[in-house]
Amino acid sequence: MPQVTSSSRPFGAVLTAMVTPMKVDGSLDVEAGVRLAKWLVERGNDGLVLNGTTGEAPTTHAPEKAELVAAVVEAVGDEAFVVAGAGSNDTAHAVRMAEQAAEAGAHGLLVVSPYYSRPSQEGLAQHIEAVAGSTDLPVMLYDIPGRAGVRVAPETLARLAEHPRVVAMKDATGDVVAAGRSMARTDLAWYSGDDALYLPMLALGATGVVSVAAHAAAPLFAQLARAWDAGDAAGALTAHRAMLPAIEALNGAGMQAAAAKAACQLLGVLDSRATRLPVTPYTDDEVAGVRDGLVRAGLLPS
Fold first, then answer.
1. Which residues, in sequence order, are bridge partners of residue 47?
2. Which of 21, 74, 83 is nearest to 46 (CA)?
3. Confidence at 302, pLDDT banded by 50, 70, 90
4. From its phi and psi, is residue 26 left (phi > 0), alpha (psi between -120 and 50) or beta?
5. Burial level of 210, CB count in 10 A (0-12/13-18/19+)?
6. pLDDT tens digits for 47-78?
7. Angstrom distance (rounded) from CA 140 to CA 38
8. Is the dihedral of CA 288, 217, 27, 148 positive or negative?
9. In 3D, which of 48, 83, 70, 66 has the Cα closest to residue 167?
10. Considering only CA atoms, which of 144, 148, 151 is closest in space to residue 171?
11. Residue whose C-alpha is closest to residue 141's, from 187, 190, 214
């Protein structure tokens, strides 16, 4: 595991929420996963999140998740933080996922709010506490009410921030004002879960990003991080503006897993953009839209 240089950045600065590569028949392609992980790290990621929503976690099975984590940790675990998703609306299932990720060598866990069932704040807190307490790994919370159907309330966040394993938050609420308040009230390291809000979140005290667009635009995200760390706000803004076409191309339609796989195929790092239902792979017309965004961001030749 890479050295933690600051308690405010426990999982690095730029993390890609990595897709799970699949062969044309839909089977897991671990070799392609390792190739993609190495490529992402070479291009500026100092962390990777596996088996999250963009990794199609609801449709990959426990042995597949563990195999991917173990292979990626072996390949890049000395250079980048490998965080594994442990998200479910079944607490017992999420605990098993956390335990299996730890056994596979993950450096940390991403724990999302239980989705669809819309639990009470007490149920939400108990769910996360159970998962966080099931291993010795540090935990990044994941607040994404648009998908989960429930938002982490301020008082619940304050309670969870006291848990010794909970060290960070991936914020995909889109609420920058509330994020600023929460950063001031807790000691959690804050990671933007919205690519376009990375720079605004940094201005309010965030420390990094968990990104979809970094599949293609990792050099620009890394450039933004370096500029911000150096106090170069103008340089950070330049990088932010440059990456916007890629952000729109990979996030605009809301089908991030399919869009990111299309981008990786266009960039030559994945052979297949296959997915598992209910996620469907991008059509040629949709791929053309991704290509256009990457060209406008300077990531592909015109």
1. 15, 81
2. 83
3. confident
4. left
5. buried
6. 999 999 999 999 999 999 999 999 999 999 99
7. 23
8. negative
9. 83
10. 144
11. 190
Percent of the chain beyond pLDDT 90?
Answer: 96
Angle (CA) 144 208 206, round 5°: 80
Rounded Cα distance between 225 and 243, Å, is: 13
Distance, in Å, from the CA atom of 201 to the CA atom of 220, rounded to the nearest integer, reads: 16
H-run or E-run covering 19? none
- Pairing outcome for strands 108-112 and 208-211: unpaired
* Res 4: pLDDT: 66
DSSP 3-state of 183 = helix
pLDDT tens for 8-35 read 899 999 999 999 999 999 999 999 999 9
Partnered with residue 14 across adjacent β-strands are: 209
Active site residues: 142, 170
Alpha helices per DSSP H over the chain: 30-42, 62-76, 91-104, 121-132, 145-148, 154-161, 176-185, 198-204, 214-229, 233-251, 256-266, 284-296
Residue 287 DSSP class? H
Alpha-carbon gap, residue 172 to 209, rounded angstroms: 10
Q: And the tokens for 161?
A: 């921030």
Backbone dihedral region of 54: left (phi > 0), alpha (psi from -120 to 50 degrees) or beta? alpha
Helices 121-132 & 154-161 angle (0-180, nearest 10): 20
> Does residue 240 sit in helix, strand or coil?
helix
Location of structure tokens 């921030």: 161
Predicted pLDDT at 97: 98
Within 13 Å, how many C-alpha atoms sit on residue 294's CB side?
26
Provide the pairing of β-strand 189-192 with 14-17: unpaired
User: What tokens were used for 260?
Assistant: 């990111």
